[in-house]
Amino acid sequence: MNPLLEVKDLEIAFKKDRAFIPTVRGVNFQVFPGEMLGIVGESGCGKSVTSLGVMGLLPKEFSKLGNHSEILFEGKSLKHLSDVEYRHYRGNEMAMIFQDPMSSLNPVFTIGFQMIEMITAHLKLSKKAAKTRAVDMLKKVGIPRAESVVNEYPHQLSGGMRQRVMIAMALSCNPKLLIADEPTTALDVTIQAQILDLMKKLQKEYQTAVMLITHDLGVVAEVCDRVIVMYAGKVVEEAEVAEIFNAPKHPYTVGLMNSIPSLTDEKERLDAITGSVPLPEEMPAGCPFAPRCAHATDLCFSEEPVTVNVGPKHYTSCWLYSGEGREAADGRAFSRT
Ligand SMILES: Nc1ncnc2c1ncn2[C@@H]1O[C@H](COP(=O)(O)OP(=O)(O)OP(=O)(O)O)[C@@H](O)[C@H]1O
Ligand SMILES: [Mg+2]
User: Fold this and answer.
1) 304 and 284 in contact (C-beta within 8 Å)?
2) Does the CB atom of residue 14 touch ligand 1 within 6 A?
3) What is the structure's pLDDT at 198?
4) What is the C-alpha end-to-end distance of the chain, expressed in Å?
5) Structural domain total, the chain
6) Which ligand is nearest to the CA of 230?
7) Span from the CA of 214 to the centroid of ligand 1 (angstroms)
């Protein structure tokens, strides 16, 4: 199957004091039609910047894409699209849901007005037909009293309802790709579960490919087919969900897994990984995770690891798994604690 979205060697740098600081540093991944791909990693790893890059929503004057970077949608490059051309892709082909629905809904217009604007901008429908579609979509995402909600303002709805409205809006033009950036972190746990169920259901019904960005590996386990783990502007591991949970390879992934609280374990598993993600302007030499890694060798502090195949459709960038590093780390116990 051909990928719907292909991101190749994505580099994004931000301007700071006249210099451009590399922030996303050579990210590669593919999203296949209809799949749900999870993107996980701690705060500051570059998850949102990567998705804004794909959506063509980075601030032009303050950011720069790498010369060799490519973003291909159905095989066509999006890199040099004009603003108008990009706008066609956003909505018709891909849509994004943001963490805080309040910041992406306009407080001075009704839900219906905003949905109709969006629908008529992308689909050839009359205002009346667009309103019917808006109400239908609101019903689809489980909004009670959709006929009256359509005439209400964002502040009249609860956080969970607003997030449902965002999903309805994003899906109202049948995009092939939906990027959901932390769609549930602002919500309480029960509502979170409902929204995730809803996204999964809609994804199945419409065969929409979803890039689900989250801090939470538990969420990934529940709804995703495949996952990429990002650290310090790079992808450090990629695999299908079952594979990554059964056999996580990168010490960072293992650390993330160990910080998932478990109800069944006799010991509390909340061993957060010590230390923090390096800032883009303070990127260390070698593997960016080395300063936090219990398995790091001299090699890890001096050279960036290469990406190696470590299982079926399973890749990681870690010296423990490539020739030289494996020898250096020989004899060390390496297991999930
Ligand atoms: N517009 C910008 N200008 C300069 N730096 C930025 C900009 N946006 C993001 N960054 C920096 O890029 C890095 C990655 O940020 P990003 O928002 O992608 O992280 P994230 O993985 O989405 O984190 P979170 O989980 O907190 O949302 C951070 O160091 C951030 O400060
Ligand atoms: Mg983010």
Assistant:
1) no
2) yes
3) 86
4) 37
5) 2
6) 1
7) 14
Q: How confident is the model at residue 325 (pLDDT cuts 50, 70, 90)?
A: low
- What's the pLDDT tens digit per position in 49-70? 999 999 999 998 999 999 999 9
Structure-block tokens of residue 330: 């020989």
Render pLDDT for 102-128 as a digit per residue (tens, 0 to 9).
677 899 999 999 999 989 988 889 999
Distance 294 CA to ligand 1 centre (A): 26
Residue of the nearest CA to atom 3 in ligand 1? 14
| Residue 100 pLDDT class (50, 70, 90 cuts) | confident
Instruction: Compute the distance between CA of residue 205 and CA of residue 196 in angstroms, rounded to an integer.
Output: 14
167 inside domain: no
If asked whether residues 255 and 179 sit together in one domain, one would say no
- 206 and 322 housed in the same domain: no
Q: Which of 216, 231, 246 is the last residue of a domain?
A: 231
Residue of 7, 12, 47, 219 best suited for mutating to test ligand 1, as the one with most atoms within 8 Å of CB: 47
